[in-house]
Amino acid sequence: MKIGSAIKSIRKRLEISQWELAEKCEISQTALSQIENDIKRPHPRTVAKICEVLEIPQSIIYIIAIEDSDIPSSKKPAYQYIYPSMKDLALQLVDSEEVMA
């Protein structure tokens, strides 16, 4: 699961700079960079703060962060069938949140 990559994808989709997001979340830009590059795993409170600032539910980040390797082999057919639609819906929710902001 690449939570940092998901955060980065959402941040870029919302056209927010890394510096701006870090400042609003009260963390350093270096810390956010390490999170976004999956060098450092964010604390749950940090994920909560990022979601609050981005005005999205935390579940969106976790849905977008799922990787094929996170899924047990026995569940992969269902995952491969369902996940593309789930990810697309999550990204649409990010976009609609942007419109509402």
Describe the structure.
The chain is mainly α and 101 residues long. The chain has one domain (3-100): 434 Repressor (Amino-terminal Domain) (Orthogonal Bundle). It has 6 helices and no strands. The protein starts with a helix and ends with a helix. The model is unreliable at 97-101 (pLDDT under 50).
Key terms:
101 residues; 434 Repressor (Amino-terminal Domain)
**Overall pLDDT confidence:** 91
Q: CATH first level: which class?
A: Mainly Alpha
Q: Look at the helices and sheets and give the structural class.
A: mainly alpha
Oligomer: single chain
CATH topology: 434 Repressor (Amino-terminal Domain)
N-to-C SSE string, H for helix and E for strand: HHHHHH
Under the CATH scheme, which architecture would be assigned? Answer: Orthogonal Bundle
Strand content: under 5%
Give start-end ranges of low-pLDDT stretches: 97-101
